[in-house]
Amino acid sequence: MPELPEVEVVRAGLFPALTGARIVAVDARDPRALTRHTGGAHDFEARLRGRSITGAARRGKFLWLPLEADVSGVAEGSTGAEAILVHLGMSGQMLLRPDGAPVERHERIRLSIEHPEHGPLDVVFADQRTFGSLAIDPLVPTADGEAAGWGTPDPLLPGQVAHIGRDPLDAAFRDRAFVHALARKDSAIKRVLLDQTLASGIGNIYADEALWAARIHPETPARALSSRAAGRLLTEVRVVLNRALAEGGTSFDAQYVNVNGQAGYFAHSLRAYGRAGQPCERCGRPIVRASFMNRSSHFCPRCQRVSLARA
Fold this sequence. Notes:
The protein has six helices and eleven strands. The chain has helices at 4-18, 40-48, 175-182, 189-193, 204-214, 227-246, and strands at 22-28, 57-59, 62-66, 82-87, 92-98, 107-115, 119-127, 133-141, 156-158, 288-292, 295-299. Helix 1 (4-18) packs across helix 6 (227-246).
């Protein structure tokens, strides 16, 4: 599944091509790609046709394209602002293509846009496994009044994203609150890292990488971490996310690509995830793969030992 770095690479690629563009046509050919949209394909198409996109923003693994305000029929107490919410799911792709380009394999939705500088373009949502979705979603105020996420100065985010916590690269992320939250959690630290309501965007790959770098076993209870260890872990989370961003994300197959269809290459820099049986770069002991929440955890049994007392 695309995680924070992969979704941010997609957002950054969409931003210059979509900001200021007008939607001239919409083809929602597969209703399975609209599971998060309440009105169906016809409603989705009709409400987008003729609207302008004002940017591309992200919080955690969620991406949204704010739309020029349509104040007609706005209910009292509503901001009237809307966005195209994008969730890539397991295999979703947002691809930029020339106007009239051939249909993509696994294409679900196509937006034909007109940009004042770049001219006509097509934006294709393709999704092999059909777990991803697009939707028109109302924008609501952020709980803390700060900018909603990367790529937007506005304190507005899609209602379906309001429960998602800020990610560790967000300027408004509060380190102290995160550390205090860990001290109240009995769950394994990896489970807590994957809780998107606490800190978003840290998926399975980057949790394993950060825990390896911080020398913390994934099954260590979160409350057993000292403030110093929790701070060290948060530092390593940011390091690994920034490294992955710099290398275009992690691609193990053709399902994750950027807007131009190119794969990321952070997979070559992984030190724990996917390296079961290979020697740990620190101590030489083989990396272990263990079952975890219907997924896998990868760790070094020597460098990362379970601690039940605060360390």
